[in-house]
Give the backbone structure.
Amino acid sequence: MEQVINKKCRICNSNDLYKAVLLNDMPFTDEFVTEARIDKEYLANIEIGICAQCGIAQNLNDTNMDNYYNDYEYSVGGSKFANSFMDTLAKKTKQQFFKNCDYTPSVLEIGSGSGEQLMMFKKYGFSVIGVEPSEYLTNYANSNDITTIHDFFYAGMLDKIKEKYFNIDCVVSSYTFDHIPYINETFDAIKSILKPDGKLIIEVHDLDLIIQRKEYCLFEHEHYIYLNKATAKYLFEKNGFEIITYDLLDEKEKRGNSLLIIAQKKSNSAIETIPYPKQEVENIKDLNFNIQTTINKIDTWLEKNKDKKLVAYGAGGRGVMTIAALKNYKNFKYVVDQNPKGENIFLPKTHLLVEKPKKLASDNADLILVFSYGYYEEIVESLSIYGYTREQFVSLLEFV
Ligand SMILES: [Zn+2]
């Protein structure tokens, strides 16, 4: 791996960084464009490095995300599984840590979105407050009686939190923690508002699962660090926390690729873990090669079948990012998605039109590459009513 010059580790400040993954000219996962916005979307290289001192995988570049998050309107709300996850998380937090509490425990959520997770905590008897950078989602949450502050969470905004919210019992953050560029400072801010025995609940993507399941689409501009159990332990202890458990929820209750960390402030006697950076470097070493091999295989398939009408299925993160990394993406006629995030929208960078599945009824495709392979059988089944047969489908899994 090539050493990175002039950059320091986000966590331990060493300059012992190596470039592990390079993806050229990549968009944001969610920045679908209308015709008028074509070519105005953000594109930059995604470069993932690994620190040979502390072993933490990290984004080598900083991206100014302020406007992106301020305008963010997408929310996980609506998905049955997401709702049940949020319910279970609040319920088990209550049972495990606040069961015999003789006062109303408080929860602060960092990146609270439209307030759905906090609503669950409220349901189980917590008082709640959210901090959310999207103006739209903040207004939405406040209109639903979930007190939410419109801002990023950092030391400088803590005076916006009223005194009654100091001494928080529980700080929660779901899929937001890895979006914070300089995480050590965030830990300091959390420490200053969390009770001595308060709980810190963090959900991030698990790098080990990303590698194991080859979910490379999770390498995004908006993700700054990539943790697994070993590096999370080091990061939390370095910042004065000890991890109590990764297993508050059962495997089947967790979301895909989820690493759920429950921690509290470290007691003075707690022993610091020494990281094993060599192991982490080994884990990530072959990654770039694997990603490039997968992309080349899909490109070869697209070239081989270029005289046929090819359609992609699935405009989620996996579809958007994989297609953006392909050379021959133009050989797809368009992308189909069950729930497009708008009408007449195009994928960022590749500008493939996003259509609903019924487009395939009137417009006969020859071959359909399914990116949302978790729904492969459902998709094959649902398109059979338009006369499609199994031989016309290819799963992304065949290339990875
Ligand atoms: Zn480091």
Observations:
- The radius of gyration is 22 Å.
- Residues 9, 11-12, 14, 51, 53-54, 56 surround zinc ion (CB under 6 Å).
